[in-house]
Amino acid sequence: MPCEEPAFADRMVLLVGTGGIGAAVAARLAGEGARIFGTYRCDHDGAAALGARLPAGTWAGTAPLDAADPASVADVVGPGGSAAAALGGIDTLVVTAGHRHPLAPLTATDPAALEEIVRTELVGPMLLVRAVLPVMLEAGFGRIVLVGSDSGKAGTLGDAASSAARAGLHGLARSVARETARTDVTINVVSPGPTDTGLLAGMLAADGLTGKVMAGTVRAVPKGRAARAEEVAAAVAYLASRDAGFTTGQVLSVSGGLTM
Q1: pTM for the whole structure
Q2: 25, containing H or E segment
Q3: How many Cβ atoms are within 10 Å of 195's Cβ, its own excluded?
């Protein structure tokens, strides 16, 4: 009896964000046969270290990317861009990037900081989706998974801009899903609750509102713990699979019941 082909064999994945959840996504998809090109905003060493940990032949390379800058997106994602050239095309986009910032009331947050958060967490993903869609539609196949946060459903005290941006991802996915519904291109959102990554650890250890809010959020999870990054990656893997061709425009919470 012949061996089954890995679920992501011959798949060409652009992974935006190679931190905690991004690294888990890379390990999951590469372990199932995908080739992955990873981008980073600042942490070149972290991205390179991730590539070194993946199975041989699955890491296609890495590049810096400012997803909110159309020129940077064109350099990496556009025709002839570094990601498309290294992979031989892009049939899967997974965006895990977020903005690191302390929590503060809206009235105490500088307008420039609000704009930066929204540019990173909403404008950037929008530009990336816009960049990959023509290639996917021409090929007749594509999977787009945006990793957001359950703050987009419930809001987070002291995090109005990020909560608004994450909610915006839901509208983006639903609108693009309608545009592409008659094709085998899908777009969905994975919406984690607190997830056991370096980002969460830093927020829990922070002084003031940030530490208090995040500790309270973890305590409120009905499962009694934060998610593991691998559990979020499992949801991404399903939505990025060929089996998920009839699932589009959806928001999947991986939050231990924090939102229902």
Answers
A1: 0.95
A2: helix 20-31
A3: 22
